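Q: Give me the 3D complex with zinc ion.
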Amino acid sequence: MQRWLLVFLVLLVSASSGGLVSAAPTRALSGSDKLQVVATLPDLANLATAIGGDRIDVKTLARPGQNLHAVRVKPSHLVALSKADLFLQVGLSLEHAWIPGLLRTARNRKVLPGTNGFVSAGEGYSMIEVPVRLDRSLSADVHPAGNPHINISLGGGPHMAERIRDGLIRVDPAGEEAYRAGFAQWMTRYDEARLRWDVVSAAVAEKKADACLYHQEFDYLLGEMGLSIAAFLEPRPGLAPTPSHLAKVIDIVKAKEIPVILTAPWSNNKNCRRVAELTGAAILQLPVMTGSENQSGDWIRMIDATVEKIAAAYGVDAQAVLKAHAEATPLSTGKS
Ligand SMILES: [Zn+2]
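A: Here is the predicted complex, encoded as structure tokens.
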């Protein structure tokens, strides 16, 4: 963040919140005094709302469809952070280009790293694509700790939800029972959805097919669906494609007969179109977070739609597979 912008933002927050440094009292929650939660992603906001219900008021910083490695900070972000009781990020370096500076500038002691009000919901997740050694030539890599896009993986939801629940309980112990109940209710929905996703994924995995992506973004999900990733349009995460790299990608897509280039709203660009034109592959734009691609603001529905789209790209009709599975599965009598 540029220095002049920081100075401007500091002045703005100072004027709007009446001071630069917030104290950290225990909140007494009343009807209009809800716990103020700020989330980097709509995914985290949706999970927090499902767990916290009407005890919390949630604001989201990133807009659906944005490149999470390059979110442009706005004065409204700083105002929200300065008033937050709980801050939620995915972490794993996903938001490291814009969040640390914002938190330092907001100077809200309740939500600084290491405090009860700071939650990295992805922490502890079993990451893929973790660099095996530190390489200075990779300094431009936007995935320095491994692949951080766990919000678009089947397993990421419950992992993030659990840490959000624990964060809510830490800053609002009086609501523990409500937060545990909200989490349990969400997990029931998740478990039902996971059965659907696993059935469809098994059908996709039978294709033993390869995938081509623009950015290392859907890697968890594709692995969970049994697809192998053969090529990325970016030579490294965050680096724009070069002509020589694109030529290699085109060869791979042709050789492996990859039917589709998977991309995101922010990366659906001329390079994707070029690879598609020269290989005959289609382009499939997928949501990178809840709410993008005009999906509803519900994380489970976003994953539902994404799984169905990927399956269709590989010739699997998700609804037909689920119908056939339901017909072949004997109904439970409910008796033990
Ligand atoms: Zn990334």
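A quick observation: The longest strand covers residues 35-39.
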